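Bug #77: duplicate submission created two jobs. Keeping one. Sequence:
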Amino acid sequence: MTSSQLTKSVLALPEPERLELARRIVASIATEKQQAALLAAGVKRLEAVVSGQINGLTEREFRQALR
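Kept job's structure:
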């Protein structure tokens, strides 16, 4: 099915179904962007630790922080 055919089929749906489909599409895009942003932040933090810009916690400090 081409995108043109898909568009025609979607536009033929009743309004409530089109709205639900639109919500699902928007949610999937938002989720992908959020995941990409979180992954990028994690990579930056890991790079900062590896490069020595920041020091990670020792195991003892980590366990104390959990309490």
